[in-house]
Amino acid sequence: MADAIGTFETKHTGNTYSRTAEGHLVINAHFEGAGTGFDAAFGTLSLTQELSQASATSGTCTWTGQSFQADGTTLGMLADGTWEQLPGESKWKVVFNGEISNGDRLRTEGVIDLPARLYTGSIFPA
Q1: Which of 7, 68, 70, 74 fits a 20 to 30 Å CA distance from 87?
Q2: Residue 89 pLDDT greater than 90, yes or no
């Protein structure tokens, strides 16, 4: 495994919920913060699950976001990943593999601390 090339720290700013035509629950968790190479970063972790699976402890998710850079440029990011609740804790381990609008590919590994409303982690080359 490659060494980390940076870190990130974001704050949870709220959730939005919706449903699909099939009756699945759609959860969007919104974050803002910064990281190595990402100045003012905003993003949304999204997952869709059957209503009966609302108490699941793992699954798949996506990330969509933007970073507004100090030099006036903007970066976009799309990523696919997984989440897993840490046993006995209100925390999720999240791993994403994604693509940045400048062509870079990254992997992130982090933890969402639900009570603290923080999502922190490391950035790796993909």
Answers
A1: 7
A2: yes
